[in-house]
């Protein structure tokens, strides 16, 4: 990819970006042409130009059609981000009517936030903006190290405040608060009282989200709470999802910290008890983060208003 570092936009046909996006989405020249509203020969010609530019087949023929090459797989995510950013760029400054707009918004959220906000947000969008598109991508803990660059390419992210999000030109507004609670199986023989002690938590096996392969990190929000409580318990199950946590507590003697809004939604269905967290865990404050470039974008202002209204309804 280094050979393209000297390529200048003025020397490129940027229409190829849109064609590349549809080809990588559809993996089929005919379907891509239909989505673009052009002829199949025109898309075939564009594919030939893209193949020459990248020196790669991009779409490799198989017995069942086409599959993406390794380079095309790498390009797929990049071209989505670039096209989304370009669409937002050229939409900025124009009047925005949610009732007729077909704009697409890209949001990063954790699966916990989706559980809390998504149904209300979906209903509000359907009522106010029936043709607006929404692309929700799951936040990964590793994203935090790239927030300054990535936040420019999306409409925003819902996440709690941490130091690495405090970067220049990144704005935020509070959406809602929550608190950490402990979840255990209702039949756990080691938990007889309605409260847990720090000594009990230290000795029990744990389910924890977003833990590394080895060691113990305070980077993940739940892990930070354990560090603040002064305990480093044994982690028996690691998951890459908040919603997965209670499923691996149910029917076992394990324990986990979980956001109360999520815990209370699943406790009855999974046979869990929700108990206060001992010590003084930090409150959970979920905020919406966006880049300052979108401050004056009418569409983005509308999106921020919808999110804050949905959060107030909680």
UniProtKB/TrEMBL annotation:
Recorded superkingdom: Bacteria
Domain HTH lysR-type: 12-69
Signal peptide: none
Stored CDD domains: PBP2_Nitroaromatics_like
Keywords: DNA-binding, Transcription, Transcription regulation
Family listed: Belongs to the LysR transcriptional regulatory family.
Protein name: LysR family transcriptional regulator
Species annotation: Amycolatopsis pigmentata
